[in-house]
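Quarterly update from the structural biology core.
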Amino acid sequence: MRRRKRSVVARLRPFRIAMAFAGSAIVAAAVFLALWPGFWPHNVVVIGNRRVSTAEILAAARIAPHLSIWTQNTRVITRRIEAIPYIGTASIQRIPPASIRVNVSERAPFALVSSGSVRVLVDRSLRVLVPAEGDEMPLVFVLRPGTSLAAGAFVTSEPATEMRSAYDGMRQQGLEPVRLALDRFGGLEVTLSNGIRILAGPATDLEKKIRLVTAILAQVGDERRRIAAVDVRAPATPVLVYR
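Predicted structure, tokenized:
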């Protein structure tokens, strides 16, 4: 007669007492890790911060003082820290038996953004960092009044992202934009560090317009000092406006 193959349950039945003991040991270890005061975070250090104070980071982190480092939700703690406008990234490192290390990277101011009477500093990703207290940034984006500039939020309006693209494109061509704004028709108007205004108009064909401006300014040579504006709103017929 052919013997039937024993089921997995049947094969494991002789080990059920050992398995129950192992399970109890695991539960006991988990309870020990969670409740033993020796694992409470007695030492919390913050590394990588310069602009944001350690006190502000710890206040945002809200690390529980009477909860084991092994049961603290590090993802939630990380998200709370990264909600601080100036914080770029955060990570949590548990160091047995009772220490936590918070590693952060900070954002760097990139431009001053103005919308009506509201003026803020943003980083390159256009995240709003803090209100601007003066003219501390050499680069200014002027947006329409009413643009949302809440601290910690990202400026996602199309004009803002177009201004950033225009700035990057001009820098690559050796130009130095210091102010980017919208004209009354919603077109782009750029002021260079030498005072020359670039009337670019709609963002369509922006790369072509930037190359055209670069070629025109290179051609005029010393006459550049007399130029007030370069109008490339119609790239086929660029116009020079003299002072």
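The longest strand covers residues 87-95.
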